[in-house]
Sequence to fold (434 residues):
Amino acid sequence: MAYTLPISILLCGVIGLSLAYSGPDLPPGPYCGRTNECCKNREDRCSHYILGTMCYCDEFCDRPNGRDDCCPDYQPVCDPQSTPPPGEIKKPDPCRHGGRIYRTGDTRKEGCNTCECVFEYEQNNWQCSRDPCIIDDDVISYVNRDYRLGWRASNYSQFYNKKLKDGLIFKLGTFKLSQELYHLGAVNYDKDIDYPRQFDSRQNWANFITPVVDQGWCGSDWAVSLATIISDRFAIQSKGAERVRLSPQTLLSCNVRRQQGCKGGHIDTAWRFASVHGMVDEDCYPYKARVTTCPFRAEGNLLSDGCRPLVADRQDRYKVGPPSRLVKEQDVMYDIMVSGPIQAVMTVYQDFFHYSGGIYRHSMFGDQQMKGYHSVRIVGWGEQNGDKYWLVANSWGPEWGENGYFRIARGVNESGIESFMVSVLCDVTESSMK
Ligand SMILES: *[C@@H]1O[C@H](CO)[C@@H](O)[C@H](O)[C@H]1NC(C)=O
Ligand SMILES: *[C@@H]1O[C@H](CO)[C@@H](O)[C@H](O)[C@H]1NC(C)=O
Fold:
């Protein structure tokens, strides 16, 4: 009991000292510098009062495991050559950004890029990825300044913080067409009729045309464009009896051979699937924007799938006939007028993501190297001040473009959209044909 008191006082003193001597708010001194005396061992002339206790200017205070009772100016006065002992190396400055402090390993976003606070060469520094983002302020301002271009650009929040290289995967989704696809039989209607200057499937077949779909962050345009075109055509060909909304999820989840789901697909593989196995409707199997386990048997029908047909004599899934290629502008127009929207594949560059209205033509603004292929649904055509266009449904939701649609120059193979256009006929039921 007799020893307890002095020991605890001593401990307090040591703790008090070590705290007192490391802060920046110590009384400024000088201490050792007052006499410039430094000693080998503890001696009165080398001790000074600080904050009600003592600090020392001797080698004893400077022992390896913590220099906890040296006077604050011990090092510059008594040991100016020494480097600080290990464990006392001055901490490197942290990374800073926007008034905030970040430690080694912390990250922050800069647009679509990520910056990491990295420690190298004894310093913390920001290291940022430098990928082009989908949205580019220069594209927006250049496009909107160039009134001859004919279309306008917008700052879409749905693309914020997304990289262009990812947008080309997850907002598109069509694999480059194989050469043999270009040998697909083309239909030649060669109808010499008066084509209307404007045609809009939505007006011609009110309520039959599928609303614009949002494919989400999933490269499923190959599934969405086909599902919507077939839906429109089922309604049109059946004169409304089979006004069905077919689910792109059927293709996304069940057509997995040779396909990459949300990372893209081959449109011809999708047609083949739709013709052999068929599709089910959106109510039965809603679109999820991701690949899920296909719940259907390959050889099932709507009843065994647990889906509800709209007409009594339908049991089979919704299937299509073989596709045919449309090559000439007027044949495309004829096919749309008679049978409904068609599918087309176009090339997409960075500027297209910004489109908010007008007649699109690929511009010289933005990245010209990175591109992807996009399957879309052409629902009609028109002319504005003599400028001919196709009217096209995109699959990026109704907030994008002109209520989800865009117009693109017609008759000039703009963005390659006229290099691959296809039509399919649907297997409507007998009863709906009457
Ligand atoms: C687009 O929006 C972002 C986020 O609000 C903003 O930082 C950027 O300056 C905008 N760009 C243009 C060209 O308006
Ligand atoms: C249309 O343009 C694409 C590329 O943009 C090109 O590959 C294709 O050959 C063109 N087609 C025609 C018919 O000119």
Q: What stands out?
A: The chain has a mean pLDDT of 89. The radius of gyration is 36 Å. The pocket of 2-acetamido-2-deoxy-beta-D-glucopyranose (ligand 2) is lined by residues 347, 413, 416, 419 (CB under 6 Å).
